[in-house]
């Protein structure tokens, strides 16, 4: 198994070292009304010597001509691994919500479930719960994100295969 440990990485982040860097690609999803969509995405995991990774993700709608067009979503947060291979993730979305996820790291697979969600009164999505799966497959970052809202139960929302940029 090829596990990267970037130079200067805090030793407590070793299990997440394979995530560090920029990832780009396209993905698919189903919006909250059940409509299919395709998107372009950029994700970056970075570190500053602390015991957490900084995460930033931005998605863009893909226009009829196949080119990225309008920004469609952005989230940022912190990934905090624990000594027992558990993981705490705090994410904030530009759509008006913050989510705390907890889960487990299993080499190059990460499973996360929502522990708590807080929404602003103007949140564009009534996000209430989620689960995420991240993994390294053939050198790529693959993920699936399921989401529940106050209007529907947990269901697939977004999935993608991203390449290291």
UniProtKB/TrEMBL annotation:
Identify the residues that bind heme b: 157
Q: Which UniProt keywords apply?
A: Heme, Iron, Isomerase, Metal-binding
GO MF annotation terms? heme binding; metal ion binding; peroxynitrite isomerase activity
The pathway that the record names for this protein is: Nitrogen metabolism
Which is one Pfam family of this protein? THAP4_heme-bd
What catalytic activity is recorded?
Answer: peroxynitrite = nitrate
Domain THAP4-like heme-binding: residue ranges: 13-164
Q: Which InterPro entries match?
A: Calycin, Nb(III)_bact/plant, Nitrobindin, THAP4-like_heme-bd
Q: Which cofactor does it need?
A: heme b
Record-listed E.C. numbers: 5.99.-.-
Q: How is the cofactor bound?
A: Binds 1 heme b group per subunit, that coordinates a highly solvent-exposed Fe(III) atom.
- Motif GXWXGXG in this chain: 21-27
User: Which family does the UniProt entry place this protein in?
Assistant: Belongs to the nitrobindin family.
Role, per record: Heme-binding protein able to scavenge peroxynitrite and to protect free L-tyrosine against peroxynitrite-mediated nitration, by acting as a peroxynitrite isomerase that converts peroxynitrite to nitrate. Therefore, this protein likely plays a role in peroxynitrite sensing and in the detoxification of reactive nitrogen and oxygen species (RNS and ROS, respectively). Is able to bind nitric oxide (NO) in vitro, but may act as a sensor of peroxynitrite levels in vivo.
Instruction: Tell me what this protein is called.
Output: Peroxynitrite isomerase
Q: Highest lineage ranks of the organism?
A: Bacteria, Bacillati, Actinomycetota, Actinomycetes, Propionibacteriales
């Amino acid at each position: 198994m090829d596990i990267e440990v970037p130079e200067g990485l805090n030793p407590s982040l070793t299990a997440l070292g394979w995530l560090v860097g920029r990832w780009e690609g396209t993905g698919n999803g189903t919006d909250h009304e059940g409509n299919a969509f395709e998107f372009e995405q950029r994700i970056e995991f970075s570190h500053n010597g602390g015991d957490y990774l900084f995460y930033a993700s931005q998605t863009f709608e893909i226009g009829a001509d196949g080119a990225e067009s309008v920004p469609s979503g952005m989230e940022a947060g912190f990934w905090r691994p624990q000594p027992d291979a558990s993981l705490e993730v705090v994410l904030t979305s530009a759509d008006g919500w913050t989510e705390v996820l907890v889960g487990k790291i299993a080499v190059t697979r990460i499973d996360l479930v929502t522990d708590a969600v807080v929404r602003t009164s103007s949140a564009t999505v009534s996000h209430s719960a989620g689960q995420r799966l991240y993994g390294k497959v053939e050198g790529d970052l693959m993920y699936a994100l399921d989401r529940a809202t106050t209007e529907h139960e947990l269901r697939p929302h977004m999935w993608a295969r991203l390449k290291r940029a």
